[in-house]
Every structure is written in C-alpha cells, then in structure tokens.
Specification:
The chain is mainly β. It starts with a strand and ends with a strand.
Length: 179
C-alpha cells in the first residue's frame, strides 16, 4: 500500500475510488500478505475498523487510532513502524511482534491494548510508551525492548509475561496484574 488511507464508514474516503464503507484492510485468501510501506498512514476516522484479521502482515508505516472514542483493531502484525492511539481513541493490537525498530505509543488520553491471545507469545523488542494515556497488556507476552509511561499514564502489566528488557514508570500508575 502506498499513500495515506483514512478508514471511513460514513463519509468521503481517503483514497479516491474507494467506497465509504471500507471496513477492513486485508488481503483476500490465497494472496500474499499485506506489507504497509514506509510513509504510508492508515488511520481510523469513525466506528471500529480493522487491519488484517486472519493472516500475518508487516507494517513499516503508521497505523493510527485518533478519532475520539473510536477503535482500530490490529491483528497479527509484525510491526517495524508506528502504531498509535490518541484523543481517547483505542488501538487494540492482537498477536503482535513489535520489532526492534517498531514503536507503539499512546498519548493524549489514548488507550493501547496489547493482547497475546493465541499462538506464539506476543513480543516487544522495540518501544512501547504511554504519555498521559493508558497501555494495557493482557494474555501471553514478552518484553526484550523498552516499555515506559509518564505524565499520569496508566501502565497495566497483566497476563502472563517475561521481561529481559526495560520497564520504567514515572509519575504514572503501575498495575501488576494477572488476567
């Protein structure tokens, strides 16, 4: 994919010729997995939208949940780019690998939910951060990278996990729980 894509349900699409009912960004069965390239931004604008569901994909661009009180569901991502949640929106990331060059951020009241729900353990080798926002881990996951929270954020380290990386919380609520 190249360019910028706004996922919309009731309005003008971000890509000329694309329907305003675009719900999922995914490859049809039998096709090569999606690779979202450098410089590409996919952002949600209304309702709950989804990037991939049944197959692994690679992200080198930006996947952004930025519409107030809306969600972007991201499944089976190998992230080398940026996944972001802001403005009280929700980014729900399931069965992920955040590579050493990948970042996942939650800012300005955003909520980043990271779930290792089935299959291999979800892994962070890059950076995951919250700034005046929430990051919540559930399921099975491991950290060999950096997880941080600042400015009144909530960092909820739930589920079953291992850590050989760095976890830092300053002026934040740190929750150690098992879900």
């Amino acid at each position: 994919l190249a360019g910028s894509i706004d996922i919309l349900r009731n309005g003008t699409p971000g890509v000329p010729g694309m329907p305003s009912t675009l719900k999922n960004v995914t490859a049809p069965p039998g096709y090569a997995p999606i690779v979202i390239g450098f410089g590409v931004t996919i952002r949600t604008r209304a309702s709950c939208d989804r990037v991939s569901y049944d197959q692994l994909f690679t992200n080198y661009g930006t996947l952004s949940a930025e519409t107030t009180a809306q969600a972007l569901e991201i499944y089976r991502v190998n992230n080398h780019g940026l996944i972001a949640a802001a403005n009280t929106s929700n980014a729900l990331v399931y069965n992920y690998t955040n590579a050493a060059d990948g970042s996942m951020t939650s800012t300005a009241g955003g909520n980043l939910y990271l779930a290792g729900t089935s299959g291999p353990v979800s892994t962070n080798a890059g950076s995951i951060s919250a700034d005046a926002a929430t990051v919540r881990f559930i399921g099975s996951w491991s950290n060999v990278g950096t997880i941080s929270s600042v400015n009144g954020s909530t960092l909820d380290l739930g589920g079953t996990w291992t850590n050989t990386g760095t976890i830092a919380a300053a002026d934040s609520i740190l929750i150690l729980s098992t879900l």
